[in-house]
Amino acid sequence: MITGISYDFCSGTQSHLCVVQDFSDELREILRSELSKICHGANNATTSISIYSYKATLIEFLKRYNNKKNETKIGMIGELLSHILIFHYLPDIRPASPFFNMEEASIKKGFDLIAINAKDSSYWITEVKSGEIGKSNKVQKVRTLIDLAISDLKKRLPDTDSTIWISAINNVGVSLSAGDPEKEILQKYLNDFWEENQIKENVLKKTNAILVPVLIENTKDPVEFSTVTDKNIKILKKPPFNKHIVFAIQKSTISKIEQFLTSEAIQQ
């Protein structure tokens, strides 16, 4: 468990809910230790190359972040939280793609995150959808974000364009080391999907997905776990994927994370 975070899960429905009630010192330390791995991929971050250092990564993150619209900033922070929390609370699953777009300093247009289960070498495609409550109530918003994640994957996974798949395979390459047996397995999965798309195979039913709704709303009024489980039970009646996990996150604002990253960049 991470200090300042309440966590609920149901193994039967593979439903999870993290409510970040406090941006604690422990969460700050995790960000310090993991930011370079998250942004560049573990294989790059473990080298001695200075461009992958914590200081350089902070500067690059803020360069990509500061000029974005508020909606995009919320999405970026939601994805950053996903990288931290999913792999803390689901320890068998590890990241196999970086946060940063490798080709340019723009928002990644492919899959938000690719992960692999160390126990059975199964792959997991992750879609993160973040947003403020707006005119909805928190129940409606969380369920809408889950639906958006499903909808986006339904559009993207059958894509015959090679660009998205080349990007995904390259992302795995920078995250997993050359000697990692799961690297070749995962890259083959992705290549096979591209090939199957060319002949109109139904890759959705072969995909394992992690659906991540990130609600930015005052945690003094936290999302009830039943909001996540009830929605997931409905999805399970007609599952769109081979397997899926719903991993919901709630945080009051993005300002404390913004302030932390900015102050760290100045102090380093």
Descriptive key words:
268 residues, alpha/beta, 7-stranded mixed sheet, 9 helices
Outline the structure in words.
The chain has 268 residues and is α/β, with parallel strands linked by helices. Helices cover 48% and strands 18% of the residues. It contains 9 helices and 7 strands. The chain has a 7-stranded mixed sheet with strand order 1-2-7-6-5-4-3. The model has no long low-confidence stretch (mean pLDDT 91).
Going across the biggest sheet, name each strand in turn.
1-2-7-6-5-4-3
Order of helices and strands: EEHHHHEEEHHHEHEH
Mean pLDDT: 91
Helical proportion?
A: 40-55%
Catalogue the unreliable spans: none
Radius of gyration, in Å, reads: 18 Å
How does the major sheet shape up?
Answer: 7 strands, mixed
Shape from CA axes? globular
Beta-strand fraction estimate: 15-25%
Number of DSSP-assigned strands: 7
Structural class by SSE content: alpha/beta
Span between termini: 28 Å
Number of helices: 9
In short:
With 268 residues, the chain is α/β, with parallel strands linked by helices. The protein contains 9 helices and 7 strands.
Break the fold down into its secondary structure elements and pairings.
Layout: E1 5-10, E2 15-20, H1 25-40, H2 42-45, H3 54-65, H4 70-89, E3 93-95, E4 113-117, E5 123-132, H5 138-156, H6 162-175, H7 181-198, E6 208-216, H8 225-237, E7 243-251, H9 255-267
Parallel strand pairs: 2-7, 5-6, 6-7
Antiparallel strand pairs: 1-2, 3-4, 4-5
Helix pairs in contact: 1-3, 3-9, 6-7
